[in-house]
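Figure caption, in words: inputs first, then the predicted bound structure.
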Amino acid sequence: MTPDRLVVGISGASGVVYAMRALEALKTLGVESHVVASKAAEMTLSYEMGEKPSVLRESADVLYKQADVGAPIASGSFKTRGMLIAPCSVRTMSEIATGVTSSLLTRAADVVLKERRLLVLMVRETPFHLGHLRTMTQLAEMGAVIMPPLPAFYAHPKSVDDIVNQSVGRALDLFGLDWDGTKRWGEDLEQGRRPQARMGSRTE
Ligand SMILES: Cc1cc2nc3c(=O)[nH]c(=O)nc-3n(C[C@H](O)[C@H](O)[C@H](O)COP(=O)(O)O)c2cc1C
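Bound structure (flavin mononucleotide present):
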């Protein structure tokens, strides 16, 4: 039987913590993580988390080199749930949109699209210019899900960790993965609950 696998791409936008949290979540969910990080991601790992690239070896089930375009995730015959790119830089998203993929990270994303699997891009930049918006539209038309990691204040985050967990959890939801770091309106959040749900019965 094919193991349950998700490809995780890490590019050099701000927010490498989203990737690290996603890898922790996948471990608790028992989903194999197949990870590839760009050179710029290694920089943000150092700037933003004070970590060395070697931390990825400990966090990933399988870690690939960015230049290894012959890796399993470069082929559609290697079955996965799809790919999450967290965070996704403008450079990486633009390369995916063109199809001119020069690294394993973007090749793996292209493969996911051609196999009609799910590609979720946590695009991180602000503000966007028209070219960025057009590129995101093009990617959405190609089947990718554009999911900037925007905080959900209805979940009443108390810390940066809470904010990160909610975005990571909502991204994993898209792959059908139910992680317990996610706060759900109508379930975990008291204000979102309907009185009849609180009583455990439906009256409508
Ligand atoms: C600390 C830091 C933060 C950055 N934040 C962003 C960002 O939020 N979004 C973005 O598109 N690029 C950002 N960049 C620039 C990218 O790292 C740069 O464009 C790089 O070439 C992206 O390469 P990659 O897509 O191969 O990772 C940042 C760079 C550094 C060093």
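The chain has a mean pLDDT of 95.
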